[in-house]
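We store sequence, tokenised fold; for instance:
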Amino acid sequence: MAFWEELKAVNFYGPTNQPNFAGFSSQTFDSMFRELAESLPEDLARVLMRYHWRMKYMEEMKPVTMRSFGGVDPRFWAEAKKEHSRLLERLEHYSERWWVSVVCYPAETCDKALRQ
């Protein structure tokens, strides 16, 4: 739930030639990394980690890319935005599962469309 809330705070905006984002925080990810790795299904955890590392990189490179491109790297931005919307769906679906089914069958049970 904490990761879902953190994702909901992120806003991707701007024209395609000057993309930007706001609201990103890696605090939950950084403080709950172990719990993420131990509790979420491997595929979901891996995608969430990849998204956060991409966002952390873009956040750190923002001052450099703002001068060069007038925004963040458009390719990275587009991939992060796409991954962001998929993760929101997957985490929402996973959080709606009954806790007994999560404990007994921790694998993510969702449509293949959500995994792609």
Notes: The longest strand covers residues 11-13. The first helix runs from residue 2 to 8. Strands lie at 11-13, 20-22.
